[in-house]
Design goal:
By secondary structure, the chain is of the alpha/beta class. Helix content is 35%, strand content 18%. Strands 1-11-10-9-8-4-5-3-2 form a nine-stranded mixed β-sheet, with helices on both faces. The two termini are 36 Å apart.
């Protein structure tokens, strides 16, 4: 290709991106990180066609939460080849629900339909087979249409600790998981998205030994309870080495004006701290249709980070 043709190709590429009406911002390549385990982790391979022919399924499980002082539930979907490979360990993805939600929200047809998206990503190789966990994120007040769940350690229960530490240990004890936090992701939508980037901060940043990959759909990043539970403030306080490990994905629909503005303010902080992130705006609003459509984007990002960590830790 000659110089003039190269310029034309570049121009067309730029125009195509503009016409897609999509904006994204990335700060630097993923940083080199310490190998957090003595033996390099190996991600499971893409499931074969016979395993993928069977529909993915999920179960609702119960565990005794000492932190919350009550039985708690979570949804779990195991990889399609989990039973056939008893010596294989898997990465883990926590999906948090939003306001007046519960552990089934991400799975049921009229809401998240997550297993349809996950199967598509397994088939195309964009996400390695993973253990999908959907916690009950409600505090001791239960679910209500009049308030959001508080993914914090607060007066209504230590939800951040219950999810980010206690439930992690339950999952590790019940399933074959990779232990390296580079292979653990946490994300969600709306207040769950806030809980998830608070899962980068409250649930994640307060549990840095468990999670490195974080994603948020239509989330917000400041909370009235104070700076400890406001990602835009709290993230500045975490150790430098922990900042280098983090990889964060954010998106929001353009009709969610407040959420987009908060996300943009948050990315300014991420830029200043040189934390690796991807932020995207899409057409859409604060609806399950939007979250269903763009779960594929966040989980593709998660898959990319898992693959990058495999290469890095395998060196």
């Amino acid at each position: 290709m000659n110089y003039e043709k190269s310029k034309m190709f570049l121009l067309l590429s730029v125009l195509t991106l503009v016409s897609c009406n999509l904006s994204q911002s990335v700060v630097a390549k993923p940083p080199q990180q310490q190998n957090l385990q003595t033996t390099p982790s190996s991600l499971p391979s893409q499931p074969n066609a016979s395993n993928l022919a069977t529909p993915l399924s999920y179960k609702i499980e119960t565990y005794d939460s000492q932190v919350m002082g009550a039985n708690r539930t979570y949804g779990v979907s195991l990889p399609p080849d989990y039973e056939q490979n008893p010596k294989r360990s898997y990465p883990v993805i926590f999906l948090l629900h939003g306001g007046h939600g519960n552990a089934t929200d991400w799975f049921v047809p009229n809401k998240g339909q997550a297993l349809k998206t996950v199967k598509q990503l397994y088939t195309t190789g964009k996400l390695p087979p993973s253990i999908i966990i959907t916690p009950d994120g409600n505090d001791k007040r239960g679910s209500s249409p009049y308030r959001d769940p508080e993914y914090i350690d607060g007066p209504n229960g230590k939800v951040s600790t219950a999810l980010g530490d206690e439930l992690v240990k339950v999952v590790q004890s019940r399933y074959r998981t990779l232990k390296n936090p580079d292979f653990w992701a946490i994300g969600g939508l709306s207040s769950g998205g806030w809980g998830a980037v608070n899962g980068a901060v409250n649930v994640g940043l307060h549990n840095l030994n468990h999670f490195s990959v974080l994603f948020s759909h239509s989330g917000y990043f400041q909370d009235k309870s104070g700076p400890t539970n406001s990602p835009i403030i709290y993230i500045k306080t975490i150790p430098l080495q922990a900042q280098k490990r983090l990889r964060i994905y954010l998106d929001s629909g353009r009709s969610d004006i407040q959420e987009i503005e908060e996300a943009k303010q948050f990315t300014k902080v991420l830029n200043k701290l040189k934390i690796y992130y991807l932020f995207r705006e899409f057409p859409g609003s604060h609806t399950w249709q939007y979250w269903r459509e763009h779960l594929i984007d966040s989980l593709t990002f998660v898959g990319e980070q898992f693959r990058f960590s495999e290469i890095r830790n395998g060196k």
